Amino acid sequence: MLLPISEVKKRLPNDFINNLYENFSPLVVDNILVGMNCNKYTTLRVNTLKYNIQDLMKYFKEKNIKFERVPWYNEALIIKNASEKDIQKLDIYEKGYIYLQSLSSMVPPLVLQPKQEEKILDLTAAPGSKTTQIASLMKNKGYILANELDKIRYERLKYNIEVQGTNIVEVINKRGEYIGDEYNKYFDKVLLDTPCSGEGRFIANLTSTYRDWSLKRVNQLVKMQKKLFESAFKAVKQNGTIVYSTCTINKEENEYILNWALQNFNIKLLDIDLNIKDTLQGCNKDLNLSINKAIKILPSKTMEGFFVAKIKKL
Q1: Which H or E run contains 244?
Q2: Does the annotation mark 247 as catalytic?
Q3: What's the rounded Cα separation, in Å, for the pair 278 and 286?
């Protein structure tokens, strides 16, 4: 059941609400809170290594599962009348023909634009949504190093990679901040979908989604994000690409990280060529002007809140 916006404001952390009003106009704040107050549609993508979108749509029609295409990604569908649990009971799920994934989470691999035969690093990879998407975009040709520090999540990552039939992925269990030293200038492209405070996933009537959030936690994460960015910068070749993404919407973990990176590394921000609704430019007030090339996706019925930036190492 939907809550009144006044009740949403009461439930979400007070510091978080104050931060929203500092960073966004009242109208945008209302849109964000509405997005955190609705039941999300189930979204998924077809695993093109095993299946194709035409057969998937035909299958869903036979099962009376209603869906909608995603204008900016041919391989993704929005499911209108089935939950994730319903989809998980289908044989095509068990066989790895599809992958349940939020639409926002599909954006960073598309922005990365991985090509066949490239060497790609997914620095913080679990549970493998983006790793397996990258492998399918590469048609299983090339090399992906997928790293995950947490042992349980590392096992989940290995499992998902196996089910999806991606055979170009090496999975490792290491501290991401040291990988740049170990694989110096080795990769064509790096995805840094960094651990973050997860504000884009807040759901007002699910306390578990924001219970652990605090300004202190945000500041701790910023320190880690900077170390991971430095590692990503070291790991990528000259003229290579880094995609930096988070599922959070504050400036501390997004625009301020980019501003710090622009001051400390020889990089430039690139345009993102995807036409997605409900996005804002990265806010660059008092910051480097190029930060407006990044995109911030607002939470909605189909999307989680997300931030994505495309970076070139000069």
Answers
A1: strand 236-246
A2: yes
A3: 24
Give CB contacts under 8 A, 24+ apart, made by 140-143. 140/49, 140/165, 140/166, 140/167, 140/168, 141/116, 141/117, 141/168, 142/114, 142/115, 142/116, 142/117, 142/118, 142/168, 143/118, 143/119, 143/168, 143/170
Tokens of 63: 């099962």
- E-only strand ranges, the chain: 42-46, 67-70, 73-79, 98-100, 119-122, 143-147, 169-172, 187-193, 236-246, 267-270, 279-281, 295-297, 306-313
* Cβ 24 vs Cβ 32: under 8 Å: yes
Q: How many CB atoms lie within 10 A of CB 140?
A: 17
Torsion sign, CA atoms 75, 76, 79, 80? negative
Report yes or no: 294 and 307 within 8 Å, Cβ to Cβ.
yes
Q: How far is CA 298 from CA 21, 62, 153, 263, 313, in A?
A: 14, 34, 27, 27, 28
Domains in the chain (CATH in brackets) are 41-101 (3.30.70.1170), 103-313 (3.40.50.150)
Quick one: tokens of 227?
């170390």
Per-residue pLDDT 10s for the chain (314 aa) are 688 889 999 999 999 999 999 999 999 999 999 999 988 999 999 999 999 999 999 999 999 999 999 999 999 999 999 999 999 999 999 999 999 999 999 999 999 999 999 999 999 999 999 999 999 999 999 999 999 999 999 999 999 999 999 999 999 999 999 999 999 999 999 999 999 999 999 999 999 999 999 999 999 999 999 999 999 999 999 999 999 999 999 999 999 999 999 999 999 999 999 999 889 999 888 898 999 999 999 999 999 999 999 999 99
Tell if the pTM clears 0.90, that is, is over it: yes
Nearest to 279 by CA among 223, 200, 206: 200
